[in-house]
Amino acid sequence: MPAFTPTREKIFGPAPSQDPLDRNAKARIMTAAHAYNARYKQQGQHWGPVTRSFFGVLRALLYCFQNDEDGRCFPSYERIAKAARCNRDTVCEAIKALESAGLISWVHRITKIRVKERDLFGQLVTRWQVIRTSNAYVFRDPLPCAPHRQGYKSENPGGPLKQDISLKTQPPAIIILDPTKPLDSALIRFGQATGALPAPAG
Questions:
Q1: Dihedral of CA 186/192/197/199: which sign?
Q2: Model pLDDT, residue 183
Q3: Where are the domains of the chain?
């Protein structure tokens, strides 16, 4: 059984950037998702923990929304659902499953807007209000040498709006590949063919 992550604390910040993913990196992430399913597939499951619909969400994030210039990716659930041809609830569950599989990480994006309201004396005044917009996603390339950017962690997880935004470096998620397993072996050969992994000795 996969080790599912507990309920995550709320993490706030701007849309994080990462090095743009080329087609080889995107293919590695998709292959890693298949390897994860092969490792944790249970009896009676057709696909595994990452279902066919969840693969559709991952594919949409990688190929429809990940910016090829700055690596940013922050579509709304509604836009993801439309691209993946599923409903909003499926997108929500897919994000959780993909994070548990170590394929993505994400942060709540926030922004400030000015709103008008009346004060105690009935005068119209404006004030700043912090609102949440959409999630911003970072992809985890399974190669140990792949670059990983910073994670975002709130220093005041209990507060609803007054959140101090800080950067905290997180260690890269490393997937150990077993060359005796077909999918892991295919991923290793793929890395060697693209030059991301050293060629076998001899």
A1: positive
A2: 72
A3: 12-193
